Amino acid sequence: MKPASSYYKNFTEEEFAADQYFQQWVLLPDDENRAFWEDYQFRHPGQQITINNASKLVQHLILTGFHTPFLSPSEKETLRKSIFEQVSKPPVDTHITYSPVKNVKWWLMAAAVLTLVFAFRFIYISPAPADAAVSTLSETTQIGQIRKILLPDSSIVVLNGNSTLSYNSDFSTASVREVFLEGNAYFHVTQTPSLIPFIVHANEVKIYVTGTEFNVNARSKATHVVLTRGKVNVTLEKDKRKTVYMQPGYTLDVDTVNNEFMIAKTNTALYTAAWNENEWHFEGTTLQTVARLIKEYYGIDMVFSSPAQANLMITAVVSVNDFTTLIKVIEKTLNISIQTQNQQLFIINPQSKQL
Question: What's the confidence (pLDDT) of residue 168?
Answer without folding.
Answer: 93
